[in-house]
Input
Amino acid sequence: MPIIARIGRKDPKVIALISALYIVLIIGAVTMVYPFLLMIAGSTKSNLDEKEFTIRPGYMDDEQKLYQKHVEGIFNERLDIMRATYDINVGSFGKLEMAESQEAYVSDWRTFVESGVLPEYSYTLGYLYTPLSRTNPKTLRDFKKQMIRKYGTITEMNIAMDTEFVNWNAFEVRPEYYLPRRNQYLNSPWYREIQAFKKTQPIDLRYHFNAEGFYKHNFLQAMYTKNLKNYNEQHGTAYSSWEEIHLTRRLPKGSTKEQEDWENFVRSMLNLLWVRVEPEATPAYREYLLRKYRDIDVLNRNYRTSYRRFDEIPLMDEPPGGGVPLSDWDRFLSGWTDPETGRQHRPEAEHLRVHSVEFMFRDAMLAEHSLDERNAAWGTHYTNFLEIRPPQRALHRQTGTRKAIRDEFTTRNYKTVIDYMILHGRGIFNTGIYCLLAVLTALIVNPMAAYALSRYRLPNTYKLLLFMLLTMAFPPMVTQIPVFLMLRDFDLLNTFAALILPGMAHGYSIFLLKGFFDSLPDELYESAQMDGAGEWTMFWTITMSLSKPILAVIALSAFTAAYSNFMFALLICQSEKMWTLMVWLFQLQQRSGQGVMYASLIIAAIPTFIIFVFCQNIIMRGIVVPVEK
Output
């Protein structure tokens, strides 16, 4: 029977009251749903848009924002590398303008890359590393899967690759950056595996190192504090933008200051992989080795060679792979001073040459066609050789499909959480066993205690109930230390018993169950006794059968308490083998970004939601049926 009669609902005051109630309920629903939608949207964010508070991520509809996120992924969230590679000055990925479409230009670049002219150290992969978002991007996931298929366990991989990863969740790959002098190209098993994997990935996910961009953005602008006016004053030039400045292959013919900058950059800052020395410097190189080692046998021991005289030593075409030869080559290029004579040994500046990706590309493009022909084919307006550059901005605009890129950003944080939970210890297994035992003990111990208090009417029943309710007055943090000491004395730490025993009996659950059992008619028990039923039979067939709604509430409470248990589970079970899911997720959140944190919270809420959905019909019957009676 409705509370308000059908005729009464036509009263204006009742209509206003009902409308007000609906408005309040809608506002309440919005205040609950809106933050949840913000959290779902936040679970798809990267460092670029994590401060964007909208319930629908901007990259879903805005092509410009999608392009910015894609470029952020391509450059592994390294803004400085993006500036050098694209040779542009932007303050953030969010201010990057979408590149123009240059299909013919990009096609020639693809052909050049596929020709195999460029060495394997000339590029690295995108979507490999996220130091700011701290998630697992696509390329890293693919490489990890390949290593898991190949080696099976992290121990086997560490032995084969000479690495020291603690587990698969600590697996990471730092992208190479072979432009600064300090970064050395390694030839270890680990790096050979990475190079082999790089070759299998599409060109669209690569970015090639740009020595000219590095020269302008990391050398000149750092030296002149990004002040073009200051640069012009010191060089006697009149450039209107940094884009007009170019890195020349050889010593420039400009002012003395320009030559000093070029020479300092090539001798001391540019990686040795991109520097070549002309054959005319061979006598200077041999003289340097003679003055440093004095004896050819000493050099042979260090170089593992068998030269008879110093004048047999050839000038290297490429930098040595490592060790003493590479160190000597570096010292020769930058300049080595003989401690006895004080004379400096180094190649002349005129004998140095830059051999970087952009120069190799320019040579290939103008080998068969003139600059005017290339301009006509590409739709460009270059006026000299140095303006040609690899069209990597246009290439990255054409990378893949929009849907694939959106799917990657939408799901990668969730994939990170799922991958972490599956590969990390026994978190899911431990949590499942813990929740199952917690629910079973709650549905056995608490109903039995409440049944005894309800059926036998003990003289001190209400005192016992009051004592049970008093346990709720103390927060769990107060009892954790005594419980820990007790379980330690019983030698139960790091066991499921330690997790279950302290919460096996719950005062409020017993109080709730006793009140429900008291409402059951005594005639049911009298009839059962007349039929010869014992206490166990009456407890299981009558009491428990008629108490399904309240038992569902108890089970849901026990599951929620066990599933969300973090601090107590970490205190009692400090061994990683016994950590529950909440402890693992806490560890994940400590090493992850905001998007992964939101994704972990959403995934962690799913089991509780599913259990509630399954229990809601039983719980609702416990609310509605008594009212109808």
User: Anything to note?
Assistant: The mean pLDDT is 88. Residues 279-346 form one domain.
